[in-house]
Amino acid sequence: xxxxxxxxxxxxxxxxxxxxxxxxxxxxxxxxxxxxxxxxxxxxxxxxxxxxxxxxxxxxxxxxxxxxxxxxxxxxxxxxxxxxxxxxxxxxxxxxxxxxxxxxxxxxxxxxxxxxxxxxxxxxxxxxxxxxxxxxxxxxxxxxxxxxxxxxxxxxxxxxxxxxxxxxxxxxxxxxxxxxxxxxxxxxxxxxxxxxxxxxxxxxxxxxxxxxxxxxxxxxxxxxxxxxxxxxxxxxxxxxxxxxxxxxxxxxxxxxxxxxxxxxxxxxxxxxxxxxxxxxxxxxxxxxxxxxxxxxxxxxxxxxxxxxxxxxxxxxxxxxxxxxxxxxxxxxxxxxxxxxxxxxxxxxxxxxxxxxxxxxxxxxxxxxxxxxxxxxxxxxxxxxxxxxxxxxxxxxxxxxxxxxxxxxxxxxxxxxxxxxxxxxxxxxxxxxxxxxxxxxxxxxxxxxxxxxxxxxxxx
Length: 459
Fold this sequence. Notes:
This protein is of the alpha+beta class. The protein has a single domain (6-164, 177-456), classed as Anthranilate synthase (4-Layer Sandwich), CATH 3.60.120. Helices cover 27% and strands 32% of the residues. It has helices spanning 17-20, 75-84, 153-164, 185-200, 221-231, 283-295, 297-315, 354-361, 372-382, 433-442, 445-452, and strands at 6-10, 30-33, 44-48, 53-57, 63-65, 68-70, 100-105, 129-134, 137-141, 146-151, 173-175, 180-181, 206-219, 236-244, 247-255, 258-262, 267-270, 273-278, 324-333, 337-347, 369-370, 393-398, 403-406, 411-415, 418-427. Strands 1, 2, 3, 9, 10, 11, 12, 13, 14, 15, 21, 24 and 25 form a 13-stranded antiparallel beta sheet that branches. A hairpin with a 4-residue loop joins strand 22 and strand 23. Helix 2 (75-84) packs antiparallel against helix 8 (354-361) and helix 5 crosses helix 11 (445-452). The protein starts with 5 loop residues before the first strand and ends in a 7-residue tail after the last helix.
């Protein structure tokens, strides 16, 4: 018999960390964090743990559900089948999530969709994707200042018991070495020159070139996430951690960028970011940098290229004539940077579902380049190691057809005793090597500083 899902009010908290803290060490604990109370544009937090099942895709594309290998080689089809297996009697609700999939889709999952190449080496041992099937969630709506527990009666009683348990004491987090780049300036410059050669040869209009930084650490990654969140609250953040045989693995994402949002009625929205300036140290300098970005022909051209790519991606699964661009190169300001952000909308075609949309547009064009497949092949050739979760997506797919995913930029990935950060940017024909190299550092310097400085620790 299908169990009835209940929606029960909980005390509202403007910060979700207090709700997540007693759950964070439970199996499959996930936090999709809108960055409130400080992040602009954030609305919902989604918290859960103890999934019904877990689907992993390894670096070779092998799919396992609860550690059992499956014959299917298409990860999105396997994820859809897992989602369809969740049977709940659902109430009417405007909440975004009433059970379904929560997890991440790493950038390298794109290798299962397109012939990308095998030049770069796999350094980070996290699965290419890890998705849990969750039958309950704690949801906070910061616009309405309400909190809800979505669960069956038995699950509700179980979760309320977990929430009453004292939070596990967090061990100190400390870097044991400074972050070191995989590329030095000359190595980056060599790859920049190779990108320019490809652009002049007509292979691409734009290529997103990234570099990886890593450091050794010890301690608990939960205080590390709190440091990052305090330094740069963003509306599409997330925290996921689990113990693997080779040591703890975790994702600490502070992304400002939505990838794909889909409503149950089939309305689709993407919000690509292209164009970045740092925030100024004074109000005057800050306004000058914002005006400079808004007027930059180069940055606007980059943004428009990615908008065109996304219009094509959405057009593969959207109703003909429904794809439109209600915002082109709008200026948005965050704690540490200004960005140019566009909005691309559409309506899913009959018979298409959110995971069809995700597969059609994955990975996001704003972090590959255009045309996408050729850009990904060049990235595989020029970047020494694979990107892992970086430039993939975190998010959820709900049983009714709601989906919200981020682009996993400004994202730290912990694997064993090392923690990794990536910084990148889109290169076009008139890019300047020194400016682009500096931009890769500007985007993550505040994350490095927060991880390195114990003063950022929170109670």
